[in-house]
Design goal:
The chain has 111 residues and is α+β, with helices and mostly antiparallel strands. Helix content is 22%, strand content 23%. It starts with a helix and ends in a 9-residue tail after the last strand. The structure holds guanosine-5'-monophosphate and zinc ion.
């Protein structure tokens, strides 16, 4: 099992922010902003590159969850959603995840 599958299964502790039948969200262990949350599908999808017609429903649902979490976290001044895909993007955990970053003005650099 990958590290995020273990977190979803409760085998590795995490600070849970949200959970439903198909989606899990928890605080990043090494936060890069005052609010740094990871939102993941419970199903193991390796990255954005593996999204297809069979599994994109959960990705649409993840974006509904992201909007809900952002409201709960008081990010009314804005936030960034990031998904690193593959080596050049620096993806370190090969289980699809969306970072929610906020709580301060974020740097504009995208690359
Ligand atoms: P990536 O670099 O793949 O986009 O992001 C992986 C993220 O997972 C990193 O921000 C890292 O801090 C976070 N992370 C890695 N291992 C753990 C863990 O065991 N628990 C939590 N909460 N976050 C983790
Ligand atoms: Zn996994």
């Amino acid at each position: 099992m990958c590290i995020f599958c273990k977190i979803i299964a409760g085998e590795i502790p995490s600070t849970k922010v949200y959970e439903d039948d198909t989606v899990f969200a928890f605080r990043d262990i090494n936060p890069q902003a005052p609010t740094h949350i990871l939102v993941v599908p419970k199903a193991h999808i390796p990255s954005v590159a593996a999204i297809d017609g069979e599994n994109s429903g959960v990705v649409a649902h993840i974006f509904e969850v992201i909007a809900q979490i952002a409201r709960q976290e008081g990010l009314e001044k804005g936030y960034r959603v990031v998904s690193n895909c593959g080596e050049d993007a620096g993806q370190t955990v090969h289980h699809l995840h969306f970072h929610i970053l906020g709580g301060k003005p974020l740097a504009l650099e995208m690359a």
